[in-house]
Amino acid sequence: MAKTMAITIDAEKCTGCGACNEVCPVDAIKVGDKAVVDADTCIDCGTCVDECPVEAITL
User: How deeply is 31 buried, as exposed, middle or buried, from its count of CB atoms within 10 A (0-12, 13-18, 19+)?
Assistant: First the structure.
């Protein structure tokens, strides 16, 4: 059973810059045109929230 993920990425705001991916300690974020979080890998640490320059990620 998958856990409930607290991290959400607003696709409207996300620019796909990759800053979140660079700081994720468990490599749970993949970036293409937009960032996507792998809920099974994410540990909800919030590191990406502080790193996002456009405030597209919330915990």
Answer: middle
